[in-house]
Amino acid sequence: MIRRFLTSQLFVSTRFVSQYYSKKKILVPSRLGVTPGNQHLQVNLFDDENKQSLGRMSLNEAQKLAKFRELILVLFDESHDPPDVRLMTGKNLAHIRDETRANKKRELSNEKIADFALRLRPHIADKDLLTKLANAKAAYAKGCSIRFSLDFGHSIDEKETEKLVSNINQSKYTILWYY
Questions:
Q1: Smallest Cα–Cα separation from 167: which of 155, 156, 175, 179?
Q2: Distance (Å, rounded) from C-alpha 76 to C-alpha 65?
Q3: For the whole model, what pTM was predicted?
Q4: Which of 160, 141, 142, 140 lies closest to 150 in space, CA to CA?
Q5: Which CATH number, 3.10.20.80, 3.40.50.12280, 3.30.980.10, 3.40.1390.10, labels domain 30-108?
Q6: Separation CA 176–CA 7 (nearest Å)
Q7: 91-141: per-residue pLDDT in tens?
């Protein structure tokens, strides 16, 4: 019953799930909680102040050392066989989190849009047309390919189409038309 419910939910929202999982996952450093289930695990402990390795120890011992020094135990790298854990202050942890978030935003803003679609209708206001053309020019400057699509309603006469083309040609942007 639960499995069928989950699969139907995933089936309905596959578009959103695939968009979420297609992005690169960035490990944001976070506090490491010690529970009875994981306290026996071995970790490599590093000191953030001196940049030294404090050796390999159990997670429980690392937590005791962190409490004694009034620092936070932070998981940094899970890829190594014993995971790498650092002792750091809350201020340093917040600074590193802000840096990783800023880097992620920078990466997402640098991604190119492969195809920029511009939809035009015959009864578009002049300012709206200029705004759309300015956005298209900015996208073209970034290296995107631009696809114009003219949406005509039910039936439109040739005069209105020519009027739209003349409005675009009179604007301050140069556009090559392909028929």
A1: 175
A2: 17
A3: 0.45
A4: 160
A5: 3.10.20.80
A6: 49
A7: 888 888 888 888 888 887 776 667 788 888 877 888 898 898 898 888 888
